[in-house]
């Protein structure tokens, strides 16, 4: 593999990792507050559809992003309503959201655009264009650093940079602010938070809403950043890979970045080299596709340290009487 | 007693209406979905044309999961719909299971193969995709400046390899030194609906020098065609005529006249002749698309060469290897 090929694979890694990363951070906020969220996939899908639909009708990609995020927050609100207010089963609520999104996006798309559950192709102003960072062209010919800057760091859509910036921001919010401390506490020992006179319900709703925003950006990136429109089921399981990444990273932001980059890298490698010939034997492409799940199982089985989820995760909080 | 009479009368009337509905045909789409802009949509267009021309009506259903295949077949057969037309190779086994139970219903499988000896009420329609792919492969090789062309398949199944293999042979027929990069999107049905992955595959192929990419990947192909248009290279559509999606970038489309097959089956109605039907270049079952959207991309010389190859394939002077028959490809290794 020569230098340029390596750069192209890494470039592809960045593009493929971004939706995973945003969804993974969404799950991080939600699960750190004690609300399991397997509806990441559905929220991304709904956001992908509404961002594409509104970007097409309004001709503005920013309006699309707004609409996609709003749709995702609406689904988050349903999840919160079912699992926080009504103390329902969080897993079932998440599954319901996935089904709801898979069905409604196609039905609404069909009734709005009559193109069989897809949106029309977006015009250029309805898509996030790639951004060329300052000096990228000028520095192009500098050996080593030039191509890295030009190919790998520059030339992505703005949402990629948003995703990358979300990592330190998440870390700062969760570990350096009062809100973050309370949010983590509510996922570990909600009764303690309640005793301190802070609203468990309010904190959990806040966490779920943040998850909605991040999933919304992830979905918008798929439909208006990477693609030019919505196609049914276009998330293709990325929400679940993000969940795997969340467990793999043991619910920590920087590790989440690493896990998502790793999973994105595996995908990029699988796309570039279908069957990898190692001389003695060939690694079939399916192994690469399954790798995120295999790695997650390995982590869960406790081979590489234990993955301990937030203690109050999955448990609806009932005030003591 | 009178009540009893009127009840049985109503039952008889119901039975009569059920009998009248016998002529209605049914159409079952495969998992790609009715409006995939490609294979299933072509089937829908054929049925739509039949409905418009005859004023008849047809019933259709989009499958959502593997488990629904037999269920949908039985539903339609029990409702007295005839013939029941299905798309996709995966319907072959369910049809073989269901057909003996409904001997009066004619089943049509497009792309699937059901033994005609065992199941006399089934018509298997197969297309010579390798021949059509051969022609677009020639176009790709002639349009390519880098000498490298790409292929993006959907789910890795023998049928899609048949496309790839025919395409590769067509490319090699024009330029024996040409390099062909062939990738499959995945091994599950999700591979038909992942345009993001399609885009990444196209980008990876472009960075390896490909300047014409043939997408035989259902909804995933939308992403391939989009990326090709964004990056300013040529792409080739599949099944339906996809030239209009990105005029000036879609070089041509490998047509598979699923619409004609569906139209013919529905027109024949209950008198449909069963057995095995193979639609190739000679029957105009496959071909390449030429319209106002790609007229500028296909020069007269290119067209002449392809037309010549076409007639030579029909005459049997050129034989295009069929991957599904040989299980290997002379021009491409998978």
TrEMBL record, chain A:
Cellular component per GO, a single term: plasma membrane
Membrane topology note:
Multi-pass membrane protein
Q: Where are the transmembrane segments?
A: 65-84, 91-113, 158-175, 205-223, 254-270, 290-309
| A Pfam cross-reference name | BPD_transp_2
Q: Sorted alphabetically, which InterPro entries does this protein's record hold?
A: ABC_transp_permease
Q: Is Transmembrane helix set as a keyword in this record? A: yes
Organism listed in the record = Rhodosalinus halophilus
Q: Which UniProt keywords apply?
A: Cell membrane, Membrane, Transmembrane, Transmembrane helix
* Major localisation: membrane
The name on file for this protein is ABC transporter permease
Which GO molecular function annotations are given, in alphabetical order?
A: transmembrane transporter activity
Q: Where in the cell is it found?
A: Cell membrane
TrEMBL record, chain B:
CDD domains referenced in this protein's UniProt entry, alphabetically:
PBP1_PrnA-like
Signal peptide (residue range)? 1-23
| Annotated Gene Ontology cellular component terms | plasma membrane
| Localization annotation | Cell membrane
Q: Where is the ABC transporter substrate-binding protein PnrA-like domain?
A: 35-321
Superkingdom is: Bacteria
Q: What is its main location?
A: membrane
What InterPro entries does the database record attribute to this sequence? BMP_lipoprotein, Peripla_BP_I, PnrA-like
Q: Does the keyword Electron transport apply?
A: no
Membrane topology field = Lipid-anchor
Q: Which family does it belong to?
A: Belongs to the BMP lipoprotein family.
Task: Provide the protein name.
Answer: BMP family ABC transporter substrate-binding protein
Q: Which organism is it from?
A: Rhodosalinus halophilus
């Amino acid at each position: 593999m020569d230098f340029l090929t390596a750069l192209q694979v890494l470039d592809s890694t960045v593009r493929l990792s971004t939706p995973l990363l945003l969804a993974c951070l969404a799950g991080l906020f939600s699960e750190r507050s004690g609300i399991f969220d397997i509806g990441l996939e559905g929220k991304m899908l709904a956001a992908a559809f509404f961002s594409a639909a509104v970007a097409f009708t309004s001709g503005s990609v920013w309006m699309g992003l707004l609409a996609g995020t709003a749709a995702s927050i609406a689904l988050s609100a349903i999840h919160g309503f079912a699992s926080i207010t009504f103390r329902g089963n969080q897993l079932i609520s998440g599954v319901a959201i996935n089904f709801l999104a898979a069905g409604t996006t196609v039905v609404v798309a069909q009734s709005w655009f009559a193109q069989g559950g897809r949106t029309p192709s977006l015009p250029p102003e309805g898509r996030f264009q790639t951004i060329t960072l300052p000096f990228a062209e000028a520095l192009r010919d500098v050996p080593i650093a030039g191509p890295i800057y030009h190919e790998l760091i520059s030339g992505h859509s703005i949402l990629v940079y948003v995703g990358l910036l979300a990592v330190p921001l998440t870390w700062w919010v969760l570990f350096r602010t009062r809100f973050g401390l309370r949010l983590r506490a509510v996922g570990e020992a909600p009764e303690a938070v309640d005793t301190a006179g802070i609203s468990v319900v309010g904190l959990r709703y806040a966490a779920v809403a943040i998850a909605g925003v991040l999933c919304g950006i992830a979905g918008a990136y798929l439909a208006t950043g990477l693609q030019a429109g919505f196609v049914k089921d276009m998330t293709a399981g990325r929400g679940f890979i993000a969940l795997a990444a969340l467990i793999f990273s043991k619910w920590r932001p920087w590790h989440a970045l690493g896990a998502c980059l790793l999973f994105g890298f595996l995908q990029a490698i699988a796309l570039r080299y279908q069957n990898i010939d190692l001389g003695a034997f060939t690694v079939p492409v399916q192994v690469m596709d399954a790798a995120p799940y295999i790695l997650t199982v390995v982590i869960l089985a406790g081979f590489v340290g234990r993955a301990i989820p937030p203690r109050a995760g999955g448990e609806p909080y009932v005030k003591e009487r | 007693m009178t009540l009893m009479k009127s009840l049985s009368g109503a039952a008889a009337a119901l039975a009569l209406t059920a009998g009248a509905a016998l002529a209605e045909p049914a159409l079952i789409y495969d998992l790609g979905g009715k409006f995939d802009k490609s294979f299933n949509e072509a089937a829908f267009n054929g049925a739509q044309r039949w409905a418009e021309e005859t004023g008849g009506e047809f019933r259709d259903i989009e499958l959502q999961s593997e488990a629904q295949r037999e269920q949908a077949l039985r539903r339609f057969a029990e409702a007295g719909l005839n013939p029941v037309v299905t798309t996709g190779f995966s319907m072959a086994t369910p049809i073989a299971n269901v057909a003996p139970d409904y001997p009066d219903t004619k089943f049509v499988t497009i792309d699937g193969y059901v033994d005609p000896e065992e199941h006399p009420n089934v018509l298997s329609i197969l297309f010579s995709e390798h021949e059509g792919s051969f022609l677009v492969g020639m176009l790709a090789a002639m349009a390519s400046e880098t000498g490298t062309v790409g292929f993006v398949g959907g789910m890795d199944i023998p049928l899609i390899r048949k496309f790839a293999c025919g395409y590769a042979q067509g490319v090699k027929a024009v330029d024996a030194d040409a390099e062909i990069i062939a990738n499959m999107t995945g091994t599950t049905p999700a591979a038909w609906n992942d345009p993001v992955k399609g885009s990444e595959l196209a980008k990876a192929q472009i960075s390896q020098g490909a300047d014409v990419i043939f997408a035989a990947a259902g909804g995933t192909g939308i992403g391939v065609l989009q990326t090709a248009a964004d990056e300013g290279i040529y792409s080739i559509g599949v099944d339906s005529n996809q030239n209009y999606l990105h005029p000036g970038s879609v070089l041509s489309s490998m047509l598979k006249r699923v619409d004609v097959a569906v139209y013919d089956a529905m027109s024949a109605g209950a008198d449909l002749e069963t057995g095995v039907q193979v639609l190739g270049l000679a029957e105009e079952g496959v071909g390449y698309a030429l319209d106002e959207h790609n007229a500028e991309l296909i020069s007269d010389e290119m067209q002449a060469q392809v037309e010549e190859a076409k007639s030579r394939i029909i005459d049997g002077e050129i034989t295009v290897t069929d991957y599904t028959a040989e299980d290997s490809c002379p021009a491409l290794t998978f």
